[in-house]
Each structure stands twice: as C-alpha cells, then as structure tokens.
Amino acid sequence: MTVKQNLNIIFHGLILNTKVIDLYKAYRVTVLPTLHKRFGLVLHEGMSSHRPIVAIDAVCPHEIVVNSKKGYVAPMEDHDALAEAVCKLLDNYDFSYRMGLEGRHLVEERYDWNTIVGQYYRIYEKLAR
Fold it and tell me: What is the CATH number of the domain that holds 113?
C-alpha cells in the first residue's frame, strides 16, 4: 500500500446544514469510519454529491456500495484496508469520478423523495384494503 504523506484531513466539528453540500463537493471522497452510525445520511449525502464512499462493513451494507463500483467497504477494524481504499480513490481521479457518478445514480434511483413517497403510498394502499 502506498501511503501519501501530503494528505490533509480536516475535522470540521458541527457544520450548519446550509454548508454541508458545499463541503461534500469540496472533497474527492466521503469516508465514514465510525462504528456508531448505520448507513444513513452521511453516505447518502456523499453519494448525492457525486463522491465515492469508503466505509466499514459495520456501517454500510455491501449491496449499497458494491466494492469497486460506488466506493469501498473495509472490514471493521482493518485500518490498512480503509487507508488503502482511500488511497486508491485519491490516486485515480477518473476511477473515483466514475464511482461518484454510480453513487449519484443509486441515490436518484432508490432514495429520491418521489420514489420513497411512492413506496410509502403503495404500503398504505395495501394496509387500507
């Protein structure tokens, strides 16, 4: 694994909702190495901003990311695999760009509010019968 010495990591702390999308677009990769959150808003926001994602398997289901298609899922507590995934994405702009597009398409297809509302509508329709 190649380790880059000139990477900058910034911990922003609390970010106002109005600034979140700008931050996602300012960076090339969305990384979620936490053990405490399930797949949710952070990864959705990253994918909707055309960014590939890197997460650990405790947080992100493999069927969402599909390794090497929308991002990478590293095994829990495998720091080397997590770092290697980030480096792969940073080393190859075209590859990471294509992954970001795939993620965006997934979000538009599955998580668009019109799609979600339609799914709820069908559930309520069935329950009302």
Answer: 3.40.50.2000
